UniProtKB/TrEMBL annotation:
It comes from the Eukaryota. It comes from Vulpes vulpes (Red fox). The lineage of its organism: Eukaryota, Metazoa, Chordata, Craniata, Vertebrata. InterPro entries: Kinase-like_dom_sf, Prot_kinase_dom, Protein_kinase_ATP_BS, Ser/Thr_kinase_AS. This is non-specific serine/threonine protein kinase. Coiled coil: none annotated. The gene is TSSK1B. Its EC number is 2.7.11.1.
Length: 367
């Protein structure tokens, strides 16, 4: 049977194509049971790479079945047919993704950015508390619902963190995600703490939200890495950002992994906290909390650089996601969240790559 017939049997009326890659596609569909539109990701095992089928897909499905948070795209159903196709039925981001939103409307006002960033940070805290890391946080993976609330999607690079005998989280060696959002330790091929990597990506996302441009130019990886390691963060003068907002970004884009903020420190930061929004003259201490004495530090502001409305999103080097070995027609009911992974909702394929332990070359980290 074709996809439309398979979905019809399950109570879904297939709609338009939302995106397509080499071995997966995302379709819209109307759910007769739920009485609203959903997104259906369809993965063809016969076309998918071995590394994806054996590693990343099973890991993703396992994690999707665990998640239940209002700021994470819901997964309603996962099932597989006897001809090797996997169907993941998810919540539809009806307003598109955050990148397109910013490219169309420009940088967000700080109040709007604060609301959306708080939603995203809450979702990341939920994941980190479960020892789940996303490892592909970027504006294209932040979908917007009908009320423009953030919905975190695409767990194709996610994993459950392992702990050693002493209870400490083990390091990861996999280069995941987009070079433009990747932390310097990941770009250098250094074994990294996955949760700390997520925090760097959050810093890039918040910068894009309030500045409408990328904090670093990833067209030259070596140059970008040098600027990152010097802890240089330039803010456009024209955006008139508050000191608290710049301070939070600066502390998330901290090259020293031992000094980079943790998710709890982000959520308690004075810029994120509604009760302290009026402290425009307040400085922030090293723990990310407001204080009245210290001066926050960042690189002096520079004139506007290239705008995100003109810059095409950087494509990421991603591992080929995972498989799952299930008997034919086995159904896996789920109450979770996620949207497109191998294909973007704008129809552009998202390049997933296999794990890399060495420093990726520029040609491997972006296109």
């Amino acid at each position: 049977m074709d996809d439309a017939a398979v979905l019809k049997q399950r109570g879904y009326i297939m709609g338009i194509n939302l995106g397509e890659g080499s071995y997966a596609k995302v379709k819209s569909a109307y759910s007769e049971r739920l009485k609203f539109n959903v997104a259906v990701k369809i993965i063809d095992r016969k076309k998918a790479p071995k590394d994806f089928l054996e590693k990343f897909l099973p890991r993703e499905i396992e994690i999707l079945a665990m998640l239940n948070h209002r700021s994470i795209v819901k997964t309603y159903e996962i099932f597989e047919t006897s001809d090797g196709k996997v169907y993941i039925v998810m919540e539809l981001g009806v307003q598109g993704d955050l990148l397109e939103f910013i490219k169309t409307r420009g940088a967000l006002h700080e109040d709007d950015a604060r609301k959306k960033f708080h939603q995203l940070s809450s979702a990341i805290k939920y994941c980190h508390d479960l020892d789940i890391v996303h490892r592909d946080l970027k504006c294209e993976n932040l979908l917007l619902d009908k009320d423009f609330n953030i919905k975190l999607s695409d767990f194709g690079f996610s994993k459950r963190c392992l702990r050693d005998d002493s209870g400490r989280l083990t390091l990861s060696k996999t280069f995941c995600g987009s070079a433009a959002y990747a932390a310097p330790e990941v770009l250098q091929g250094i074994p990294y703490q996955p949760k700390v990597y997520d925090i760097w990506s959050l810093g890039v996302i918040l910068y894009i939200m309030v500045c409408g441009s990328m904090p670093y130019d990833d067209s030259n990886i070596k140059k970008m890495l040098r600027i990152q390691k010097e802890h240089r963060v330039n803010f456009p003068l024209s955006k008139h950002l508050t000191g608290e907002c710049k301070d939070l970004i600066y502390r998330m884009l901290q090259p020293d992994v031992n000094r980079r903020l943790h998710i709890d420190e982000i959520l308690s930061h004075c810029w994120v906290q509604p009760k302290t929004r009026g402290l425009s003259s307040a400085a922030i201490n090293k723990e990310g909390e407001c204080s009245r004495g210290a001066e926050p530090s960042w690189t002096p502001e520079t004139p506007d650089r290239k705008s995100a409305t003109k810059v095409e999103p950087r494509e990421e080097a991603r591992p080929e996601t995972e498989p799952e070995t299930k008997p034919e027609e086995e159904t896996l009911p789920v109450q979770v969240s996620r949207q497109s992974d191998t294909t973007g909702l704008n129809g552009e394929p998202l390049s997933k790559e296999t794990e890399e332990e060495a420093l990726p070359q520029p040609s491997e980290t972006h296109t």
